[in-house]
Amino acid sequence: MQKYSVNQYTIENIVNWVKSGEIAIPEIQRPFVWDSTKVRDLMDSLYQGYPVGYIISWRNPDVRLKDGTLSMGKKVLIDGQQRVTALTTALVGQPVIDDSYNKVIIKIAFHPVEERFEVLNPAILKDKAWVHDIAEIIKPEFSTLQFVRNYQEKNPDASESALERNIQKLKSIVQRPIGMIELNHDLEIETVTEIFIRINSKGVVLSQADFAMSKIAANETYGGNVLRKAIDYFCHLAVKPEFYTHITENDKEFIKTEYFTKMKWIRDENDDLYHPDYNDMLRVAFCYKFKRGKLSGLVSLLSGRNFETRSYEDAIAEASFLTLSEAVITFMNETLFKRFVMIIKSAGFVDPKLMRSQNALNFAYVLFLHLKEIRMEDALIERYVRRWLVMSILLGRYSPLS
After folding, report:
1. Residue of 393, 326, 335, 323 whose CA lies nearest to 364
2. With 193 labelled, which of 47, 99, 108, 375 sits at a CA distance of 20 to 30 A?
3. pTM given for the model
4. How many domains is the chain built from?
């Protein structure tokens, strides 16, 4: 049985869906990793009428709310976020988050005589022959007639007919079709997860953690977008303490949250024995609080999945986000984190080069947090965690996280 349909939509449709929230592109689902020249090339391909590939989406399951009504799920991009994000920043002027977590707008310039695109730079800003930002031309209120008059005043040798033709061709970019593969609405989340991790992006297979993080960041109702920032920021600070200044200067809302209060200490931590990335942090938090290992289960719970009735309920989604938030805050706890690192060192792992398995470290932290939660004596906790970690490294059998 076919699990998808293929439809054609205009670029304008796609961009409007992003603006209205019909398509969920979380603020920092994954930082925008395209080089600016790729955005330029995408604009040129659309202008030339070249195909730009398919995007793949899946509509979240409808969730039953507390009042008994159903909330229709948004479309979630499974593949194609970079292209869609490039369209919204170049054609609409929406900011994107770069790999340093800065908000930037990528402006693409256009030469209406030579029909060339370039990323805006200081030299082009001084050149009267260039349109500095194509987003201005795409706006509905843009007047081609007025533009031609103004342009010819500055560039008297330019052909009026050629200018009109090329500007109209540029404006028509938003009417270009783009193919969308839409996964069936009633697919089980486990199936969507399997499809997701089989899709290659730049030759790298996307992980279940990527899908889970996309799900987290897309939910603003229960603070998933802020939770996603907390996970990203903590991992970033663990590697680059100077990133702290960026957060305080550029994310005033986040610094008011409990997450920020709990993570501030990491900027002064110089130990590099355990530097978790978002994949590690998410797996530890999920396994610790939910007592499960497969992240496809987390996606189901955050979607509100009731495993008995096979329906989706708002109350389950709300509780799952709250539990995950508590787990992330516990993960970042200064006392617990530092105590765990001390236990690792006491087991003889004093240098990161001695640690052959990140998953062994992750599950050791899960064990440590669980034993602390049941209030086992500290001496026993240290003994069990040390022994478990050493044996897992030696035997290569360490966790259900692998």
Report:
1. 393
2. 99
3. 0.67
4. 1
